[in-house]
Write a structure and sequence with these properties.
Aminopeptidase; binds coenzyme A; 7 strands; alpha+beta; 4 helices
């Protein structure tokens, strides 16, 4: 889906980003919500709106991850009405191009099949299972693309 564009967010976008995150929350997708947490995310991450034909379809964000001398993708959300159209994969491909030739790490819930399939398709490999990784009582798997 080459009609996707990534548009950089600013802290002023926190409410819109919050709405997207809040709408995505489920048993297998948790998000840090609230103005303080969202503004911190927007400061710490290179965060982008995913847009398609000038419509905002989701968000993606990454930051440096010194431990692997690479990057950590901390957020990928496609809003419910736009799922399954290739937007998530296209946005990941653009982010990976922006990141360039560096290792990339992410975590996801072991029951998050759509995300895991997407990441596997893009060359990520499962590296570890972590119980209670974010202190929310839920496990996560760590995936890395070398
Ligand atoms: C995960 C998510 C971003 C996928 O976005 P999307 O735009 O719907 O995904 P795409 O249409 O680009 O699909 C790309 C690939 O992902 C996989 N995939 C997508 N939806 C899937 C589903 N429901 N079941 C299984 N695999 C799925 C497929 O491998 C698909 O490739 P294919 O179309 O060639 O079969 C989206 O479901 C989402 O926002 N989920 C809620 C938030 C979340 O869990 N984010 C990830 C946190 S780690």
């Amino acid at each position: 889906m080459n009609t996707i564009k990534l548009q950089r967010t600013t802290e002023n976008d926190w409410q819109l980003v919050s709405d997207i995150k809040e709408a995505a929350v489920s048993d297998i997708f948790h998000a840090n919500l609230g103005e303080v947490a969202i503004k911190k995310y927007l400061r710490d991450f290179e965060s982008y709106f995913i847009t398609h034909e000038n419509k905002m379809v989701g968000i993606i964000g990454y930051r440096p991850e010194p431990e692997i001398n690479g990057y950590y993708i901390g957020e990928l959300i496609v809003s419910q009405e736009y799922k399954g159209k290739g937007f998530g994969k296209a946005a990941m491909q653009i982010a990976l191009e922006l990141i360039g030739n560096h290792p990339v790490k992410l975590t996801t819930h072991p029951e998050n099949s759509p995300a895991i399939c997407l990441y596997l398709k893009l060359g990520f490999k499962i590296k570890a299972w972590k119980d209670n990784y974010y202190n929310d009582g839920e496990p996560r798997i760590v995936m890395i693309k070398e």
